[in-house]
Amino acid sequence: MAGRLARWRGGRLLHPRGLSFTGQVELWGPLAVRMAGRPGRCAGTVRLSRGTPTPDGWPDLLGLALRLHGDAGPFDLMLSTSSQRRVLRHLPIPRYDFAGPYGSLLAYRIDNRRVYVTARSIRPLGRTLDEVASVADRDAACLDLFAVGVTGPWRRFGRVVFGARLPDEVDAALAFDPDGSRGSGPHPTGLIQRLRVASYGFSQRARGAAADQTRLP
Questions:
Q1: Beta strand 17-27 with 40-50: parallel, antiparallel or unpaired?
Q2: Which InterPro entries match (predicted)?
């Protein structure tokens, strides 16, 4: 049943329609150390996706998956379009444009503090995946990364610049880690996170994603 559903949704049970890109990531501050091993630049893998099969240009729960290839090993961030307002940061919110903002929805536990992560672009990225690809081709696609505690202002700690689009077969083989368990970085917490990990693992097994993610470009 899961396999048939995955094939109907383009090979993925979750966020079936998407594009993947290489990327360059620059990080600074304490979060850079926790996520990538050190401040500075590292390679990245970026995937933007539509959460449900709505027609192009319609509002949707858009997704951003970011893999940091840092000194500490690969670390994956998985974000969904949301709001930066405190009362709404836990809720996925449909958006028209792939510029975001994207939020972690769940908190990361870092040094006994709860930290939320968000990403957004200061310029439109497009309402369709084809438009996003066109912006990336012009070297004009980038996202800024922000973090906030339970209270206080959002603080920028990084930037992601999109590179070349990855082939469809690589996109199909990608399996991002919702728990951060492949690396030594921070982990999201809570009951909802445990359910999320189970659903993503089920989806990835059903569609036959690559077991060894380190062999992908």
A1: antiparallel
A2: Catalase_sf
Neighbours of 154 (CB within 10 A): 17
- Please state the domain count of the chain: 1
Torsion angle (degrees, nearest 10) of CA 178, 123, 142, 156? -70
User: Which region, left, alpha or beta, applies to residue 111 given φ > 0 means left and ψ of -120 to 50 means alpha?
Assistant: left
**Type of residue found at 163:** G
What radius of gyration do the chain's Cα atoms show? 16
The residue range of the domain holding 80 is: 2-210
Cβ-based neighbours of 120, under 8 Å, separated by 6 or more: 84, 99, 100, 101, 102, 143, 144, 146
Query: Domain containing 138 — which CATH number?
Result: 2.40.180.10
Alpha helices for 81-173 (secondary structure H): 129-137, 168-173
pLDDT in tens, 128-153: 999 999 999 999 999 999 999 988 89
Question: Distance between CA atoms of 4 and 207, rounded to whole angstroms?
Answer: 9
What does the block give as tokens for 82?
Answer: 């949301």
What pLDDT, on a 0 to 100 scale, did the predictor assign at position 212? Answer: 66
How far apart (Å, rounded) are the C-alpha atoms in residues 97 and 126? Answer: 5
Residue 45 located in a structural domain: yes
Taking the model in full, what pTM does it have? 0.82
- Contact yes or no for 44/8 (Cβ under 8 A): no
First to last CA, the chain: 31
